[in-house]
Structures are given as C-alpha cells and as structure tokens.
C-alpha cells in the first residue's frame, strides 16, 4: 500500500467533506449542515484560512484527515498546535495510518515552533484514548473543558 500525506487543497473539498461526514457518523453526531459545509470550504481553502488540514491517502484513495490551527500559550509565550480532528476511516485502521498522520501533525507543529500540541477526545472513544496514550500523550486531569454556544 502506497501511503501519501499531503496538505488538503481546494480541489479536495468534496473528498474532505465526505471524510468530515464519516467522522460525524462515527461519533454519532449530526453531519454538517449545507451552510456549515460552505463555511468549512471557505475557512479551509478561502482567502482567510481559519484552519489547515492534511489528507492521508492509501493507493491514491483519501482515507483520513487532520484539521489543526494555532492557539497561543501566554505562559509558554509560544503558539499551541491545536488538533481539532484526526480521523481515519474504520476499514483502514490498524495499519499504522493514524500514527503516520499524527506524526505528520507533530512535524508541522515543530516546524511552526509550537510549544505544545493539544486536542480533546470523547470520553467513550476508548480506541482513540488508547491510541494517543500508546504514542506517549498524557491525559490532563486538572483542567475542565467548558463550552458556550454562540
């Protein structure tokens, strides 16, 4: 199997959105609405990008993606690489593709001179929790996530 990891391009928008749909299905969440899909394309591939993304391909078939952006740590005085999504289609799991995609994200974070990398995992997603912990990630126990819908 030939594996390629590359930046997502505007011409990949349809494929990218289908992978976002697959993640929503996996997480048992609603798929993005038509308006949200337009915003994803605009914000990922438009003039003012709000996030960056990578695709992982197996034999030229897109089988996963990662979305990331920078936040900032006032205490480190460095950017933080925030991993919003890391997803590989279920039928391609267990082949090392997730690890390769995660490693590619780490490389981007290092190139950007980020001081750390952060993400969240759903508490029921034990396969993902195990995956990240096997890679050496540490679960934070002293921070509580809050959300306010606007």
Can you describe what's shown?
- The structure is a single chain.
- By secondary structure, the chain is an alpha+beta fold.
- The chain has one domain (3-134): Aminopeptidase.
- Helix content is 33%, strand content 26%.
- The chain is built from four helices and five strands.
- The chain has helices at residues 13-26, 34-45, 97-111, 126-134, and strands at residues 3-7, 52-58, 61-73, 78-88, 116-118.
- The longest helix has 15 residues, at 97-111.
- It is globular.
- It starts with a strand and ends in a 16-residue tail after the last helix.
- 17% of the residues are buried.
Write the layout of secondary structure elements.
Blueprint: E1 3-7, H1 13-26, H2 34-45, E2 52-58, E3 61-73, E4 78-88, H3 97-111, E5 116-118, H4 126-134
Parallel strand pairs: 4-5
Antiparallel strand pairs: 1-2, 2-3, 3-4
Give the structure's gist in a few sentences:
The protein has 150 residues and is α+β, with helices and mostly antiparallel strands.
